[in-house]
Specification:
The protein contains 6 helices and 8 strands. With about 230 residues, it is of the alpha/beta class. It has a single domain, classed as 3-Layer(aba) Sandwich (Rossmann fold), CATH 3.40.50. Helix 1 links the parallel strand 3 (about 30-35) and strand 4 (about 60-65). InterPro entries: AB_hydrolase_fold, Dienelactn_hydro, Dienelactone_hydrolase-like.
Length: about 230
Amino acid sequence: MSDQHPFQNVTFPSSGREAHGYLAVPAGGTGPGVIVIQEWWGLVDHIKDIADRLASQGFVALAPDLYGGRVAHDGEEAAQMMQELPEEEGARLLAGAVDYLLSRPEVTSSTVGAIGFCMGGGFVLQLAAQQGERVSAAVPFYGVGQGVPNDFSGIRAAVQGHYGEQDTSYPVEDARKQAEQIRRESGAEVEFFYYDAPHAFANDSNPQGNYRPEAADLAWSRAVAFLKAKVR
């Protein structure tokens, strides 16, 4: 069997309309399912690379396109596109992505994991709160934006968060409060890790130059081990 995994652009029904995404499948052909949720830039090559990296670790990874094919080219445009995405619409599209991923014959798990970055880190928590038992592992990386829910009581997933101590978009004090709120309201297993790094430290293509390879590698190894342990 080749160590090259197959991937494809896919369409799936969501809230009565057609949604799009990027699906990466392990070389072995099957594996547990993980939803990959984009940053505010859109479904860019970096997010597809995250799905590819997960496939190389044995997961069937689906990255839904929350912007309908649009991508941002600078921070101002990205902020505008994020603000133009209604939280309810994003949540509905992600619910359809869970349905679709669990219906795929390649997926061996009865639940999915969810991993997301920046805006997607907020939507990871939204999706876990919305889907309850269907999401068994939620991994937000520096989650910000309108995707973060106000109420975490619906979360049944174990939660592993990754946040930068130099993050000016989401101060570390807020992240610590959020971890405690999730724990208190959901009763879920919650562990947040904090890094000597700024916002978006795991994005090696970030145009704002925030990538920190040591922190990124450590966070990634923790996230992959967590997903392997929790998604069944």
